[in-house]
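Homework help thread (please don't just give me the answer)

Our assignment gives two proteins as sequence + structure token strings and asks us to describe the second one. The first is just a warm-up. Here they are:
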Amino acid sequence: MTTTIKDLGEIELLNRLKKYMRYGQIDDDLAEIKTLNKSLLINTDLLVEKIHFSEKISNAKDIGWKCLTTNISDLICSGSENIISFTVGLVLPSHTHWEWVENLYEGMWEAMQEFGGEIIGGDCSCGDTKMVSITAIGEKKQPRLHRGNAIPGDYIVSTGFHGLSRLGLALLTSEKLPSEVQLSSQLTNKAISTHKRPYPAIKALKALKECKPRSTSWRAAGTDSSDGLIESIRGICQSSNCQAVLSKTSILKDPDWPEDSMWDEWILNGGEDYELILTLPREWAEALSKELKSAQIIGFIKEGKPNIFWDNLEPINIEKSNLFQHF
């Protein structure tokens, strides 16, 4: 029987593609290129209509903002706050209105005014489905955050709340909520805004740099929580060949988040919150949790075959049905 991409899934597909790249290259979200005077970080994301965005819940400006900020987040979670440039690849059905394209770029322009960078080119083609491919380029700075940099003894830090984007998606699509609860208007508005206009953790990165103790090196592991809190930690464990132990009582929840435990699933696996997930030496982690109000130590790294546990040693099993599936 012929194996399809759907049979493989995204993770196995990437594992099979590793043989075409140098060792460790695919363990991070982006590539590093060394030039004569500086090192550059380069990231590419492809967003496809009806998979990554929908005009039913987001207008073209919001889609343009999200296309750029998802790439910017990958640069930020790798340690780059100096965003240099972008190229934009477009696939558009021939009946697409010019106004939609113009508004898409207006949204990108708004993101560049906030985070920096400029559009330096790209390509366009006709196709049955709208697709936007962004390649973002940033300058490498210390610390070079990488999923493969975690070591036993590190503390795990989350820089903000999770679950908001997932709730926003549910509200925008009239999806059934985990349980019947009364949501505050503040939580509703925040969730919808978080989903439609994600804001990369640039403030958290700056705080991380500013609070580093002199006694520690710049070594740190990091990623963003675009695929969900638990999945981001799983990625660090896989790349660093280690285990994570998380504290159930330390996982941050928005102050207006429902107390019902059925809602915890969206906090753990909701995705698209774009917070930094870091592993740091203890002193640095404690300094960041004091420097950044939204930062919280949620666990630690230990030796062992890649896995994630709660602090009662209960394994955290990630059900594929709870995760976003690319195929």
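The one we have to describe:
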Amino acid sequence: MVLLLSDEDVRSSMDMAGAMAAVRESFELLGKGRVQMPLRVSVAYPNTAGVVRLMGASIDGMGALGSKLLLGQASKRAPGLTYFVVSLFDPADGHLLAIMGANRLTQLRTGAASAVAAGYLCRKDAETVGLFGAGVQAMGQLEGLASVLEIKKVRVFSRDRGRRDDFCRSGGRLLGIDVQGVEQADSAVRGCDAVVTSTTSSEPLFSGDAVEPGTHISAVGSNNPARRELDVATIRRAKVVVDHMQQALDESGDFAIPMKQGLIRREDIHAELSELVLGTKDGRVDDSEVTLFKSVGIASEDVAVGRAVYDRAVKLGLGREVTV
């Protein structure tokens, strides 16, 4: 029998604190060499938005063996359809344990990774966040940061004013903080202690010259070589940490485009997040540093959180058993 978990079951099984614990442990084990994780594989149907991305990981120490299907293209996904699926397997013999909808899981693991990184890279007194984007992942980023920072004010910039206003209302209610829309991109950068980018932009969202000393940036939108949220000035000014070196270099236009132009080098990236978690590389060392966490999303995060979801769902009696 296979446990089938809906996205609502996942939501009932897991919160941000639980996701952060699972993600942190997965990065610790990744740094210790106990994670097997091939690079993401993509298959596309010609001339359509039909794209399948396959991500898999084995995490020794968490009893976690699984895969994730990431389907379709951002900004081209239709409401109410399934585009994120995680499958879990028994590490003892590989049989299928569970299939779960992973829309909320993806939001949680992405926000959790940024929150874990912020613990090492963001100033402890940070209280004002500038946010680019007003979608599901932007909300997950805000939820994650609010779990590790005493946020008092959020400034949201989005080209879709209606979506931005809806986001501000729902974000304010969810987190109980002041969430306001702004009309200019620089207003979500200047005077902000932390800046989050969660968009599908193909061009840099702001000038690196607008970034003030001491700012921490979480960039999660660009996981495609043609998409880009950050300019070269931002990357050059920052202490750069990535979730996975090779995937970040291959998949993010934030790095791929300027590296092809010879404007930045691999050596400009300070560390992987696993190195900060293990303490083999430093995070923020003073309050004037500009820090950057660049996330493309990796399979070990999904599989770790998926395993935690499964364990909780079994205890809570959620989902339904099916034969496949």
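TA reply:
I won't write it for you, but here's a hint about the kind of observation we're looking for: The chain has a mean pLDDT of 95.
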